[in-house]
Specification:
mainly alpha; Cytochrome Bc1 Complex, Chain D, domain 2; two-stranded antiparallel ribbon; 6 helices; 55% helix
Length: 133
Amino acid sequence: MKLFLIGYLAVVSILSITLFQDNELKKSIERGSEVYADFCVTCHLPKGEGVANTFPPLAKSDYLLKNREASIRGIKYGQSGEILVNGFTYNGVMPAMGLSDEEVADVMNYILNSWGNTSKKIVTLEEVSLISK
């Protein structure tokens, strides 16, 4: 009986955490779409396709998934210098947008779950706040 109860509590806990995280991710993605529309769409375009040789694509971006911390840092503080995205080198400047840590987390969650990108690991406010220049 104890084993059954322990197993039952474990399953209920895992389901609760998973459902809560999925709901939080969904809300963050919704907020992130608004941040994207306000700050990112001008350069990276409506479907994250970017501009060849100028602004890297966010759609199906290998860089975002392989360089999570650097991607967050770039959104939070701006970015300059060479980066390799989907086999192409980009060497431009992205200024800091002055976003709050919550806005950075939300827009990252939106980008990481749009246009062929998939990441079930939510970017949290705490994760963003720990990233420094």
